[in-house]
Amino acid sequence: MKLFDQTSPGFLNPSTVEGAILYAIIFTISAWLFGRLLRVTVEHVLARDKHDHFDRMAIKFIAKLLRYCVYAFAFVAYAHFVPSLSSLGTASLTSISVITVVVGLAAQNTLGNLVAGIALLLYRPFKLGDRLQVMAPTGLETGIVESLTLGYTLLRTDENRRVVVPNSLMASQTSINLTGNDPRVLCSVLFNISYDSDIDKARAILLSLAGKHPKVKSVSGCPLTQLGSSGITLSLDVWCPDALTAITLRCDLLEQAIKRFPAEGINVPTPHTIVVLKDTRRPSVEHEKAAITS
Q1: Rg of the Cα atoms in the chain
Q2: 3-state DSSP assignment of residue 191
Q3: Mean pLDDT for the stretch of residues 105-115
Q4: What are residue 155's phi and psi, to 5 degrees?
Q5: Can you tell me the distance from the alpha carbon of 245 to that of 216, in angstroms, rounded to the nearest whole number?
Q6: pTM exceeds 0.85, yes or no
Q7: How far, in Å, are 158, 206, 270 from residue 141 at the CA level?
Q8: What CA–CA distance (Å, rounded) separates 165 from 105?
Q9: CA distances from 49 to 43, 53, 55, 74 (A)
Q10: Class assignment of domain 126-177?
Q11: Residue 214 neighbours by CB distance under 10 Å
């Protein structure tokens, strides 16, 4: 620092207020530019990766972690560069163990989420774009993994809602990966027919509808699965490309079957009749008119 004291003007001398402010701006801009350069580089690399050679979730997570490390390094370097803050920089390094204990006690959940996020990257139970089922306060939620941040995992549901799950909870709970290596799912559609219907004919109709549907990859079968009080249940089991397709496929097959069955003489049990009880404690309108007339 003596070199600055002897030859440097006031605004270039880090010992002066003007110099300290100038170098604070320089370090801040440098850290911001380096962080932005890192982010742009990562986005450029991922954009050119058309065949998914890189793990997008891991790269984005590490890039965010590195940007925070750049900002922390810039602060410590600036504290060492400015003489009035050099003691602060030295203390921040020599007392790193004490700071770690204090910060760890004050932010256990935050650090736990960070460590859990690193564990998710190492064990890789899922990746970006995978479809997961997780347990949330609202019950079982199904969504697609949008991002893995330093603290949270974001899922997008079919209703376009965002489910934010802490990484510590994501790493500890049991989640079902509906995508995995083979995204196919077995879709079972239940059909109820009456006892007087021809079971073989109903099964043939269902198999024919499934075989002609463009979203069905293959038909597994159509066994009789249940004997009810008003009819029997046939389960049409088909393989479809993914879990999201299974939802629309189930609706399509139900609608096509309910339109086809009456034309083929297949009877469908009617829903139970809803009986509305009349309050007999109040006289009817006719009874009131009769009483007035008399």
Answers
A1: 34
A2: strand
A3: 71
A4: -115, 145
A5: 9
A6: no
A7: 10, 30, 33
A8: 22
A9: 10, 7, 10, 31
A10: mainly beta
A11: 6
Query: Domain boundaries in the chain?
Result: 2-94, 126-177, 185-264
Architecture of domain 185-264: 2-Layer Sandwich (3.30)
8 Å CB contact between 198 and 265:
yes
- Could you give the CA distance from residue 152 to residue 136 in angstroms, rounded to a whole number? 14
Contacting residues for 276 by C-beta, under 8 A, at least 6 apart: none
Asked if pLDDT for residue 261 goes beyond 90, the answer is yes
In the block, residue with structure tokens 């859990």: 116
Q: Where are the alpha helices (DSSP H) in the chain?
A: 2-7, 17-48, 56-81, 83-94, 96-106, 108-123, 167-172, 199-212, 243-260, 285-293
pLDDT at position 222, please? 94
In the numeric block, the tokens 């490309």 are attached to 241
Per-residue pLDDT for 9 more than 90?
Answer: no
Residues 6+ apart with CB under 8 A from 253: 189, 206, 209, 210, 213, 236, 238
